[in-house]
Write a structure and sequence with these properties.
This protein is an alpha+beta fold. Helix content is 18%, strand content 37%. The chain has one helix spanning 27-37, and strands at 2-9, 17-24, 45-50.
């Protein structure tokens, strides 16, 4: 299983915001889960990123 970070925006001029995570075995299931779980807002753009692919630019 892979943890996917979900980012979305309501308007094209808005920055992407982290809206949550989904845990699924593949990208297709993760896309479906993200769309159905985080459908409370009228998002115009949503992306998912595998958590393991995120790299820190500045570490605390």
């Amino acid at each position: 299983m892979t943890v996917w970070e979900v980012f979305a925006r309501k308007a094209y001029e808005d920055p992407l915001h982290h809206v949550g995570t989904v845990t699924e075995s593949d990208v297709d299931l993760a896309l479906v889960s993200a769309r159905s779980i985080y459908d409370e807002q009228p998002w115009i753009h949503m992306i998912i990123v595998p958590r393991d692919s995120i790299r820190e630019a500045i570490k605390p």
